[in-house]
Specification:
- By secondary structure, the protein is mainly β.
- Among the domains are: 26-158, Glycosyl hydrolase domain, family 43 (Tachylectin-2, Chain A, 5 Propeller), CATH 2.115.10; 241-352, 5 Propeller (Tachylectin-2, Chain A), CATH 2.115.10.20.
- Helix content is 1%, strand content 39%.
- It has one helix at 181-184, and strands at 37-44, 47-53, 78-83, 90-94, 109-118, 123-131, 139-145, 153-158, 194-198, 204-210, 215-221, 228-235, 242-249, 252-258, 269-273, 281-284, 287-288, 299-305, 313-319, 329-337, 343-346.
- The strands form five sheets. Strands 17-21-20-19-18 form a five-stranded mixed β-sheet, with no helix packed on it.
- The protein starts with 36 loop residues before the first strand and ends in a 6-residue tail after the last strand.
């Protein structure tokens, strides 16, 4: 997408960052570019933690992905950064490194890591999209840690909702495409782009692109956040949404997602519901202004409720560089809301 010139390299010194500059190189406290792509944030005991994919090394195109341009870099692991002000980020290392010959093999897929804290077990739980290089496995990966800065211990990868039936489809009934889901997916429901959302009551949910991507699933997690209960909902059948980001405001549930166009940007979509179990209603593209039709040349990954500013939210997105993934950038923008409770995102060259 956006090429990077040598003049735009990260500063050699670790001068404090004082403003958000969407699309610019964002240095950490050591002066190196932040490397946390497709990620999410956790706020815990007064500190923000940013987790993301480590993109480094050669970008290449596997033959099995040539038809859709699925370039990649080898899996390195999950990075962690910490911050008090959301601007200056201290690197805390690789908290889930790649391990050859396992589900975390460098030649496999580890995408969109999200960490949540379980107050009952006092564990930090990391969920991510775990897949084969051709994206046929379509599974979730789970790891845990006693500390937000890891290291995380890998538990397993799996497809959620094994031998279960969605709450909005009666047993024996067929979906709109004539598929009997339990029969078609005997080892669980497919799960690709995903996020995890923890509600006010401590219940947690997995949102993921499923059924080959055309339909999104909302799956209830077990009390320990390590698996799914089997209760799930199918939403937006045939809409092909990915990159889900979920948040709650004034008792309403919000979802911002993208279409499925590989690395190429597209128009974001916003959705709202009174209950996590729906019904969910689309509100349209939350982005307004120049390049709103391509989400300001980016794809969303997370919506952050700002801890010390109730009612304030930040839209986090990645500006992917498909030919040099290590040079992908971050787009963080504040979210406003119109009189219909719909989110509005406008471009700003810089902001505080």
């Amino acid at each position: 997408m956006l090429s990077v010139s040598a003049k735009e390299s990260a500063p050699a010194s670790a001068a404090p960052v004082t403003k958000f500059r969407p699309g610019a190189v964002w240095p950490d406290t050591t002066g190196k570019p932040i490397n946390a792509h497709g990620g999410g944030l956790l706020y815990h005991e007064g500190t923000y933690y940013w987790y993301g994919e480590i993109k480094q090394g050669e970008t290449y195109l596997p033959k099995v992905n040539a038809s859709w341009g699925g370039t990649r870099v080898d899996v390195v692991g999950v990075s962690c950064y910490s911050s008090k002000d959301l601007l200056n980020w201290e690197p805390r290392g690789n908290v889930l490194p790649a391990v050859p010959g396992t589900d975390l093999d460098p030649k496999k897929v580890l995408e969109r890591p999200k960490v949540v804290y379980n107050a009952k077990t006092r564990k930090f739980v990391l969920w991510f999209h775990a897949d084969s290089v051709d994206y046929a496995a379509a599974a979730c990966g789970v790891a845990t840690s006693d500390s937000p800065t890891g290291p995380f211990t890998y538990i397993r990868s799996f497809r959620p909702n094994i031998q279960s039936w969605p709450v909005n489809l009666k047993e024996g009934e067929k979906d709109a495409k004539g598929s009997q889901l339990v029969k078609d997916f005997p080892v669980g429901q497919m799960s690709r782009d995903m996020t995890v959302f923890v509600d006010d009551d401590g219940k947690a949910y997995l949102f993921s692109a499923s059924e080959g991507n055309p339909t999104m699933h909302i799956s209830e997690l077990t009390d320990d956040y390590l698996g799914t209960t089997g209760k799930f909902l199918r939403i937006f059948e045939g809409r092909s949404m990915e990159a889900p980001a979920v948040f709650k405001r004034n008792g309403k549930y919000h979802l911002i997602a993208s279409g499925c166009t590989a690395w190429e940007p597209n128009a974001a979509r916003s959705c709202i519901a009174d209950s996590i179990w729906g019904p969910w209603k689309e509100l349209g593209n939350p982005c307004k202004g120049d390049k709103a039709g391509i989400t300001f040349q980016s794809q969303g990954t997370y919506v952050l409720p700002v801890a010390d500013k109730p009612g304030s939210f930040i839209f986090m997105a990645d500006r992917w560089n498909k030919d040099n993934l290590a040079d992908s950038r971050y787009i963080w923008l504040p979210i406003e809301f119109d009189d219909k409770n719909a989110p509005v995102i406008r471009w700003q060259d810089e902001w505080r």
